[in-house]
């Protein structure tokens, strides 16, 4: 696992260490502390994550020792009665936590049990979340928001129990703030707790093989819930509308066992639950009674056991880049073909198919990354979806993207039902063995975002090699410099770019390489996850930008001097997609040109990087598209300082 750690200059040193190493490094000699007096120790304070409390009056960050005399992390096991909603609108998160408590194996993956307020207490706690393809450790201190000595957000029914409050704090830190947790979907949190992929079925529109889908899901250890649309009234069977139930069994006699899934409510600071309910009904009765079915399919790395029927998961990371690979949906045929394309080969049909059925089952899940974390910058969820095409025989086995004409004259064999502004869009499809290409996209062109494309299959599939020879060379250079964590800082980026540029003929460009300041600005532009570093995917997109801008540089260096005169810079900026006025061109000349009013390649790239970043930030805040935004001073500083 990766570990997210606060703590000034210590953080880069320990970002790849595990929990035990972090405690040892941050707190040398902690074993010598006598915990009968907490004041004898100097505990850790998380200065990196200091929640903003401007929307509450007199709210303090208080350590548990200041709230009660005998704080405990978990009392008698973590269960649903420990989850009381506070003044934050994150009931979606609490519903997912309540569901998590019903599976001890999954629960203790998220909440490692090796921590307490007594044994080896160090003022910190850690929690594990699935984050876009990998498990990360998030470390927080034990200070939680209080008002009049009471917790204002999630809290336990027991005043001296704090696991639920600290879990909420860690999840808020993962997304950047408590405020980022306002409003959401329980399925989103459930995926972050399990690494699984969730399918949502409207039961009256579900496929005819729904029983088989449910049976196989339970065999794989998937979490499964169902609900009845409505508001609090009872049905003739005694079930309550508007409440969720967990499905605990599906039998071959086509019966189904239903047990309550906890519904968490805020009622005078208390938690309201249904009584324990177990109902058995035949499958037809189930279909007629319930309206929604939710399945959280777990991945092999979540279960960590010998379950024989696990899904096989293929993970692809990508990014839609304006003017390059953000082509929009099929409604935009001129640009749709420029979207990222992912080829797969389906080799074997599924086992245990219904009578007369053939093919390979795929669950395709497309997730957009980082939008909740960037909400404070004005980011919203894009409408996303995907299409699946069968690759003709004459085009199979190639890593070349399919051309524009192919998509104009060929229909898709499968697709997401619609383009929706959810974090993840999921679709279950069945295809015959063969080679296919999956094309994920936003609904409209020019919408930038990173994404994760996961493909779940019953049998192993064969991905078709996507990398070009140039990209393979980049990967080798990147791996050599980045090391095991596969991330590079500004100085390492400078080394990578120097190596890459040295392998190209740059005789027409005068440059002494990129400065450290330019590399810092490049990271600020491409660093979508806020880590202060670049991963391989982010570096690839940066390199595409540099190649595009290099081509423009050479085209408008009219006198072939190897530098860009300030007058030539006007055409270069316009062809890069930026519309500026004379005053701004004057500022560019003063800021980036030398004494001879020329820009070398480094200054030229630095200028375009900063223009790109400023335009991108403005578009994120300009939600109504009127060309006017309103920022307070802190938002303005946040935008301009990290550029």
UniProtKB/TrEMBL annotation:
Keywords: Calcium, Cytoplasm, Hydrolase, Metal-binding, Protease, Repeat, Thiol protease. GO terms for molecular function: calcium ion binding; calcium-dependent cysteine-type endopeptidase activity. The keyword Cell membrane does not apply. It is found in: Cytoplasm. Residues 544-579, 609-643 form the EF-hand domain. The active site is at residues 91, 243. PROSITE patterns: CALPAIN_CAT (PS50203), EF_HAND_2 (PS50222), THIOL_PROTEASE_CYS (PS00139). One of its GO terms (biological process) is negative regulation of apoptotic process. One of its GO terms (cellular component) is cytoplasm. Transmembrane segments: none annotated. It comes from the Eukaryota. Calcium-regulated non-lysosomal thiol-protease. Belongs to the peptidase C2 family. Homodimer. PANTHER family: CALPAIN (PTHR10183), CALPAIN-3 (PTHR10183:SF329). This is Calpain-3. It comes from Denticeps clupeoides. The lineage of its organism: Eukaryota, Metazoa, Chordata, Craniata, Vertebrata.
């Amino acid at each position: 696992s990766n570990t997210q750690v606060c703590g000034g200059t210590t953080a880069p040193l320990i970002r790849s260490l595990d929990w035990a190493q972090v405690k040892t490094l941050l707190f040398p000699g902690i074993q010598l502390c006598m915990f009968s007096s907490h004041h004898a120790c100097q505990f850790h304070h998380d200065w990196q994550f200091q929640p903003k409390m401007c929307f509450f009056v007199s709210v303090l960050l208080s350590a548990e020792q200041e709230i009660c005399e005998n704080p405990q992390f978990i009392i008698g096991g973590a269960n649903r009665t420990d989850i009381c909603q506070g003044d934050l609108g994150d009931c979606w998160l609490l519903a997912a936590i309540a569901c998590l408590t019903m599976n001890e194996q999954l629960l203790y993956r998220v909440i490692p049990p090796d921590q307490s307020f007594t044994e080896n207490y160090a003022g910190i706690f850690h929690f594990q979340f699935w984050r876009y393809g990998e498990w990360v450790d998030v470390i927080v201190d034990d200070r939680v928001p209080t008002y009049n000595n009471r917790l204002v957000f999630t809290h336990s029914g027991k005043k001296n129990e704090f696991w639920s409050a600290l879990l909420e704090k860690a999840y808020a830190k993962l997304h950047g703030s408590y405020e980022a947790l306002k409003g959401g979907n329980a399925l989103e949190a459930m995926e972050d707790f399990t690494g699984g992929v969730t399918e949502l079925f409207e039961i009256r529109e579900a496929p005819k093989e729904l029983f088989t889908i449910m049976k196989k899901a339970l065999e794989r250890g998937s979490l499964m819930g169902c609900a009845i649309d409505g508001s609090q009234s009872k049905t003739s069977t005694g079930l309550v509308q508007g409440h969720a139930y967990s499905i605990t069994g599906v039998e071959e006699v086509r019966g189904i066992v239903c047990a309550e899934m906890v519904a968490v409510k805020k009622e005078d600071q208390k938690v309201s639950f249904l009584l324990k309910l177990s109902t058995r009904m035949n499958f037809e009765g189930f279909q007629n009674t319930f309206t929604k079915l939710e399945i959280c399919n777990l991945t092999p790395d979540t279960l960590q056991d010998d379950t024989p029927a696990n899904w096989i998961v293929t993970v692809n990371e990508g990014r839609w880049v304006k003017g390059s690979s953000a082509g929009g949906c099929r409604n935009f045929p001129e640009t749709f073909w420029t979207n990222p394309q992912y080829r797969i080969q389906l080799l074997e049909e599924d086992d245990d198919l219904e009578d007369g059925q053939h093919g390979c089952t795929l669950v395709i899940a497309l997730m957009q990354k980082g939008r909740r974390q960037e909400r404070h910058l004005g980011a919203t969820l894009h409408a996303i979806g995907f299409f699946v095409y069968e690759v003709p025989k004459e085009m199979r086995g190639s890593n070349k993207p399919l051309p524009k004409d192919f998509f104009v004259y060929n229909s898709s064999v499968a697709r997401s039902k619609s383009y929706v502004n959810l974090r993840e869009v999921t679709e279950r499809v069945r295809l015959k063995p063969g080679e296919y290409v999956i094309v994920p996209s936003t609904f409209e062109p020019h919408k930038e975002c990173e994404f994760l494309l996961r493909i779940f299959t019953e049998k192993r599939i064969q991905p078709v090699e996507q990398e070009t020879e140039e990209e393979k060379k980049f990967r080798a250079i990147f791996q050599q410099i980045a090391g095991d964590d596969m991330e590079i800082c500004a100085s390492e980026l400078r080394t990578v770019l120097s190596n890459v540029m040295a392998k190209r003929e740059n005789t027409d460009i005068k440059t002494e390489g990129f400065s450290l300041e330019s590399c810092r600005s490049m990271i600020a532009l491409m660093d979508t996850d806020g880590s202060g570093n670049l991963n391989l995917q982010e570096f690839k997109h940066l390199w595409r930008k540099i190649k595009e801008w290099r081509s423009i540089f050479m085209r408008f260096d009219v006198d072939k001097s190897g530098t860009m005169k300030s007058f030539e810079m006007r055409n270069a900026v316009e062809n890069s997609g930026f519309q500026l006025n004379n005053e701004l061109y004057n500022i560019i000349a003063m800021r980036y040109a030398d004494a001879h009013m020329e820009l070398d390649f480094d200054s030229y790239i630095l200028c375009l990087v900063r223009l790109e970043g400023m335009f991108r930030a403005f578009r994120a805040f300009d939600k109504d598209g009127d060309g006017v935004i309103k920022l307070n001073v802190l938002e303005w500083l946040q935008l301009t300082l990290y550029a």
